[in-house]
Design brief:
Chain A: One of its GO terms (molecular function) is FAD binding. Chain A: This is Caffeine dehydrogenase subunit beta. Chain A: InterPro entries: CO_DH_flav_C, CO_DH_flav_C_dom_sf, Diverse_Substr_Oxidored, FAD-bd_PCMH, FAD-bd_PCMH-like_sf, FAD-bd_PCMH_sub1, FAD-bd_PCMH_sub2, Mopterin_DH_FAD-bd. Chain A: It comes from Pseudogemmobacter humi. The complex is a heterodimer of chains A (about 290) and B (about 775). By secondary structure, chain A is of the alpha+beta class. Chain A has three domains: about 5-55, Uridine Diphospho-n-acetylenolpyruvylglucosamine Reductase, domain 2 (2-Layer Sandwich), CATH 3.30.43.10; about 60-175, 2-Layer Sandwich (Uridine Diphospho-n-acetylenolpyruvylglucosamine Reductase, domain 3), CATH 3.30.465.10; about 180-285, CO dehydrogenase flavoprotein, C-terminal domain (Enolase-like, domain 1). Helix content of chain A is about 35%, strand content about 25%. Chain A has helices at about 15-25, 35-40, 90-100, 105-110, 110-120, 125-130, 150, 225-235, 240-255, 265-285; strands at about 5-10, 30, 50-55, 65, 70-75, 135-140, 145-150, 155, 160, 165-175, 180-185, 195-205, 210-215, 225. In chain A, the strands form four sheets. A five-stranded antiparallel sheet of chain A has the order 4-5-10-6-7. Chain A starts with 6 loop residues before the first strand and ends with a helix. With about 775 residues, chain B is α+β, with helices and mostly antiparallel strands. Chain B has three domains: about 15-130 and about 195-240 and about 245-280, Aldehyde Oxidoreductase, domain 3; about 365-455 and about 620-770, Aldehyde oxidase/xanthine dehydrogenase, molybdopterin binding domain (Aldehyde Oxidoreductase, domain 4, 2-Layer Sandwich); about 470-615, Aldehyde oxidase/xanthine dehydrogenase, molybdopterin binding domain (Aldehyde Oxidoreductase, domain 4, 2-Layer Sandwich). In chain B, helix 15 links the parallel strand 20 and strand 21. The chains are: A alpha+beta (about 290), B alpha+beta (about 775). The interface of A and B includes residues 44 and 262 of A. The structure holds flavin-adenine dinucleotide (FAD). The site of flavin-adenine dinucleotide has 30 residues of chain A, from strand 2, helix 2, helix 5, helix 6 and strand 10.
Amino acid sequence: MKPASFSYHKPGSVSAALALLAQFGEEGKIIAGGQSLVPSMNFRLARPETLIDINHIAEIQGVSDQGDHLEIGAVTRHATFHHPVSPCPLGRMLTKVVANIAHYPIRQRGTFGGSLSHADPASEWCLVAVTMGAEMEIHGPAGARRVPAAQFFRGTFTTAVGRDELLARIRLPKLPEGWGTGFYEFSRRKGDFALAMALAALKVEGGTIRAARLGLGAVGAHPQRLEALEAELTGQPATPQTFAAIGARAQTMVTPSGDIHGSAEYRRELAATVIARALTRAAEDAA
Amino acid sequence: MSWIGRTLPRLEDPALLRGLGRYFADLARGAQAVKFVRSPMAAGVITGIDLPDPEDIRGHIFLARDLEAGGVRPVQAVLDRPDYRRVPHPALAGARVVFTGQAVAMVVAETEALAEDLAEQVFVDIEPEDPVISIGDALAEDARPVHPETPGNVMVEGAMRTPGVDQAFTDAACVVELNLRSQRQTAMPMEGRGGVADYDAASGRVTLYASVQMPHMLRTGLADALAIDEGLLRVVAPDVGGGFGSKMALFPEYVALVWACFRLKRKLAWIEDRRENFLAGSHSRDQIFSVKGAFSAEGRLLAIDGDLRSNVGAYSCYPVTCGVEPLMAFAELPGPYDFAHYGVRSRGITSNTAMMAPYRGVARPMLTLTMEQLMDRAGAKLGIDPVEMRRRNLVTKFPHTSPTGLVFDEASYLEAMEAAVKIADYPAFRARQAEARAGGRYLGIGLAVFSERTGYGTPAFAARKMAIVPGYESVDCEMGPSGQVTLRIGASPHGQGLKTALAQLVADRIGIAPDQIRVIAGDTDATPYGWGSFASRSMVIAGGASQFAADKVADKLRRIAGQLMEVPPETITLGDGLAMAAGTNRSLPIGDLARAIHSQSHRFPEMEPGIRTQGFYDPPGTFSNAAHICEVEVDTQTGGVRIDRFLVVEDAGLLINPMIVDGQIAGGVAQGIANALYEELIYDEYGTLLTSSLADYLPPTCAEIPPIEIHHMETLSPETVTGAKGVGEGGTIGAPAAVVSAIMDALAPFGVEINTIPATPDRIRAALREAKGPAR
Ligand SMILES: Cc1cc2nc3c(=O)[nH]c(=O)nc-3n(C[C@H](O)[C@H](O)[C@H](O)COP(=O)(O)OP(=O)(O)OC[C@H]3O[C@@H](n4cnc5c(N)ncnc54)[C@H](O)[C@@H]3O)c2cc1C
């Protein structure tokens, strides 16, 4: 449980971090909150020769409200979202979600950008990014580029961020007032990674769903937005029957694999349950 | 005024809570780090071990052959029974490996990180053999023997059959058949195993500071394995961060560590990490109980016929052996129920998995689950309420002799249950349950009644035919010249608060305050030979011995006071720090008496100077009892279980410190809930442990454990000198049965059976699917 030896660098700017990444190539590794990287170094599953610590780069810290979207610096801590960062449906939704990420001490160090870069299939922030159509600002030797969430996640623990690149900022489009949001996750214990989780946002008028966002996490290689079901929801009454039916539809669309915490069949059922419950919460929130 | 029965804050806590506790790893300063290279495979023949070039080794690497050359012998756990198969347990595997994680080489380096670097350069070549992992694997027709010594893979077996069993089943109005399984668990002490071995050049002795429960026994076992004079060893258990039975065993790592310390004449520290603890610390449970119960139409239990299988892992743990689980299951399955006909076969089955050692509760969580399920399921078949079923079957006359010859002393099985049932308010619950069900929510209530055999001395262990028979305790008591008392005990408390409880007990006997009493434990150089702390024994046995020793101190104080006040010693009473002469207004401070016998001993020609006494106790044992009631809500869509209420009515005899007793119960219940719902060690078919970190092995946290509501009864034991009974394990014993019973009650509308614990969400959903219960 002691890491293999490594050297350590503490750049003060994105450009300095990129220079170090270029210098050390395959051997260099970014460390943000360290809440995923350090355990795997202690198990010696990860053995980077050089750590590039981005915690001291001011330009990628904190959240700013840009009118139609929130801009989140990569090294913004999970705990920043314990209270709404913006008095809009998105800000309130992030507060509901963050309580499900790990435990209080871990939320003080773990970062938004670290979660997205790490790309755990059960990461709540990855689900938020996919469902809300986030855009990632990635900096590399050739400058900055923007990648939409739909193209960012490539598989379990794999993203569009290259070895010599750094995720600098995340743009999350806001939801207009009047939308309701709902999040539901099932995990074995409080703070554990989800066995399944769903995020829903609904615009409901006179009991009818006018627009919907729906995402599912922890059931496949990475979280997915269920656009087909969003379309199906639109125009339907916001009732438990609708939500149960949408859950049941989702069950037929996912092909989870089983592990020691739940069989594939169990996870498929759970996908339906969390979707129905997230939608129910979103409808309650919209009301 | 009595100190007994008072909720005195624990004398241990000011240091522990301020971070001033001293654990073995705190003593590692200046030590070289030891790491073990462990087998990546469950079973195989070692064909070679590749080491780095000698000039590249910054440190030392030791293999089995080095230890053999140094005269180290395998550890041998012995039962004198014809059905027991003896398997030597080498400190390092030399010829074969028999479980994943078995130590194959030991490395020593300057720091832990460097030791891990060095360990990574040791490659063990293994020619794999068929892994034998599960009970099913081990008992299969064509199963490969795990050891040459264990054809058929049964290491120990107990069996008996009273003559009336078959007839009782023929006559029965109702037969219930169970096939229950408890998955594998581990005790998960906060502090892992490990030790600091320190060589003293002046004396040539080694002191081992280690996280253990039985320091004296460890010294004996180490001396045997190393073939050295036991006087060359001192074993110290400083503060220990939890044991729960898992730190009783002499683990082979300790043999290697101490050997290397003698060899290198250097201070060495082995501090295991959590992964090692999962892989190579001891495991528990992993049992399948197939049991039939025969009942009369009135719900009277007539007979039980059981086939009990316990997976005991690759080795038999020293000193208590692999008989612990199967032989306790064999002897104690009948529990607190009164019936005559008993047939049982109980086997300890070896496999290519980590060694089983005692864990809080030992066989009893599983046998209580079994008996309570028999009651519930027979009641359901016969249309008799579960509480009424127990009323008709519990033992109510004492002493009671069980079908296996155990003698139950005075207890309150029925009364504790009735009290619990009343507090729980069944009618109100049933109304809530009906209302919830109408709304599609499933609440359930479950009951567990059980006996907990505690405080047993040598006869109980001798009955198992253990070659090393633990059980008695000795205590040395000394009052110093200022009246302060030092109690040196052979028991080895590690978090239980025993020092406080003993101080309260002794304070009453001598008439001084508990903070005047210092209890010294866990150091073989400073305490009399004893057996440490395990098996809910310390308050009863070390307590009894302390009481004897304290009474002798009190006697001497009375004699001194009698002489000084010129009254007969019998007229002296001790209390509040004073010796008072009855019928007079005269008294002397106890401190003055102590000073006199030390500093003016020439004035007491009839007496020896000083005040030093001994107490010794070896009781037959006693039975505590409790009733647990659990209320749950089951989410039929996710299979999740939430515990809404957990109620315990406990009868542990005389309560010395109720707060300490409550702490034991609450912690025990939490571990029982873990067994019922959360914790599970999983090996794959190759014998790789899939749950070797806390991301995959799930101890419940305070978010999952409800407040535990505890009520007491106090049936004094006639079998112990203090009247106290043991209370270390009951929480763990009753909780799984109560939780399972509650889940089945909640899901009764679907006829769901829970036959495997932990009852995980996945398993509950699977059971609901099978029972054609609600789709999600
Ligand atoms: C007990 C426990 C429970 C947890 N439970 C949850 C949970 O329920 N849900 C959840 O989502 N997470 C959970 N986590 C993980 C936690 O949220 C981590 O903080 C997060 O996954 C990674 O963020 P980090 O800042 O700590 O990243 P680090 O651990 O520092 O890095 C993780 C990876 O991302 C890379 N990286 C980090 N930042 C960047 C960047 N800006 N650009 C490019 N690459 C980068 C690193 O090189 C590394 O490969 C848990 C962790 C623990 C220890």
